[in-house]
Q: What sequence folds into this?
């Protein structure tokens, strides 16, 4: 049976959506991958969709969803991307990892190019972390 991986951030509109897309792309053959938020917004941030498209990963059909919409009994590992204590409390049987990641949507920027750079930085940081999961889970 495949393991399940859940990425969590408050609004489920940028960081967790990017992480979900990366995980589906790079380790979707090893994990069932989900993302959710404690206070989800109504849509994925367009800049998240754009920076993922730059690397050939399409997240345009992903939707923000509340954690309450998931069957948490089927989640093996939850990865919190929140930088603070806004992340929800989960059942004790779920392995919990913290990857505190700056929310690019809250960045103070002067231009759209600056915002794009912030989103790319988050994407690249999360890509490294997802790839480290893939490497650590290899069976030789």
A:
């Amino acid at each position: 049976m495949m393991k399940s991986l859940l990425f969590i951030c408050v609004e489920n509109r940028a960081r967790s959506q990017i992480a979900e897309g990366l995980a589906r792309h790079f380790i979707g053959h090893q994990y069932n991958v989900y993302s959710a938020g404690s206070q989800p917004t109504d849509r994925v941030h367009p800049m998240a969709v754009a920076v993922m498209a730059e690397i050939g990963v399409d997240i345009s059909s992903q939707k923000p969803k509340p954690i309450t919409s998931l069957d948490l009994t089927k989640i093996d590992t939850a990865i919190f991307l929140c930088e603070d204590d806004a992340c929800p409390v989960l059942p004790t049987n779920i392995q919990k990892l913290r990857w505190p990641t700056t929310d690019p949507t809250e960045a103070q920027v002067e231009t759209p190019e600056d915002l794009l750079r912030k989103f790319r930085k988050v994407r690249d940081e999360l890509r490294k972390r997802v790839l480290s999961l893939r490497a650590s889970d290899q069976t030789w």
